[in-house]
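Why do we care about 3D structure at all? Because function follows from shape, and shape follows, mostly, from sequence. That is the central idea of this module. The next example makes it concrete: a single protein chain, its amino acid sequence, and then its structure expressed as tokens.
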Amino acid sequence: MTEQSHIFMSPVGELFLKQQNGCLVSVDMNTKTCATESEQGKIDNKIIKQLQEYFDGQRTQFSLPIKLMGTEFQRKVWQEMQKIPHGETCSYSDIAKKINSSPRAVGNACRANPIPVIVPCHRVVAKTGLGGYCGETVGRFIDTKQWLLRHEGVAS
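And the structure:
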């Protein structure tokens, strides 16, 4: 297995990117738990370029090879998240209805999303508020979710 990684400096902090066999498999916002870039090979420039374009406001959709590793249920939720257009949101309960599940189960799958930003779990919100992000309901990751939504033109 060929693995590359890169630490991408974004407006929401460092993003630790991991690519395996040509596919993006992870965008980790908790870089303190990740290996340093020097321990791995270089990641595909297309990934870096598209992320930079997104953060510069020049890209609304990603066109990258990704590999979502998770349970069948998680992958079903992540596929639904990818259908949410840039600048729009969808509730946990709306996704739950589409896949015949519960909002809490959808929230747990969102928390387990290995490729945030690219697979836009930040666009999934509670019926009556923002909901969580990366397992938090207050703190740095909620600030990140709010920033991403504002960046896409969604009032949060």
